Amino acid sequence: MSMSKPFTSPLGSVQEKGGTPCGFVSIWGQDSFVHHLYVVADWHGQGMGRALLAAGLAGHKPPASLKVATRNTTALAFYHRLGWQNTDETGHCEITGP
C-alpha cells in the first residue's frame, strides 16, 4: 500500500492515507530535537514513522536528538533500528515516568 508524501509545514509533518491523518512529527527548531512522533497503531511497521522522521528532520542540522520513556519499548526498538543510540542523560516525567 503506497503512502503519499508527508505534508510538511514549519510546525511539523503530517502523513495521511485517503485523507485521514495517520501520524505526525514535530521538530523543535534549531536544536533538531524530535519533540513528537506519533503513528496510529494500525500503521505501525509500514514505513510511516521512518517517512515522517525523514520529512521532519529534512533541512535540520545533525545531530538530531529526542527523549523516549524507558517503558516505551516499541519506540525504543524503532529508534534503535534506525541507528539512534542511547546516551547517559536520564530524566523523569510525572506523566510517562522515566
Task: Give a verbal description of the structure.
- By secondary structure, the protein is an alpha+beta fold.
- It is built from 2 helices and 5 strands; from the N terminus they run ββββαβα.
- It has a 5-stranded mixed beta sheet with strand order 1-2-3-4-5, covered by helices on one side.
- A hairpin with a 2-residue loop joins strand 2 and strand 3.
- The chain is globular, with a radius of gyration of 14 Å.
- The N and C termini lie far apart (36 Å).
**Terminus-to-terminus distance:** 36 Å
What can be said about the biggest beta sheet? 5 strands, mixed
Q: What is the H/E order? A: EEEEHEH
Largest sheet strand order = 1-2-3-4-5
Task: Specify the number of helices.
Answer: 2
Query: What's the pLDDT, averaged over the residues?
Result: 82
Shape: globular
Range of strand content: 25-35%
pLDDT < 50 stretches: none
Computed over alpha carbons, the radius of gyration is 14 Å
Number of extended strands: 5
How much helical structure, as a percent, in the residues?
10-25%
Assign the structural class, choosing from mainly alpha, mainly beta, alpha/beta, alpha+beta, or little secondary structure: alpha+beta
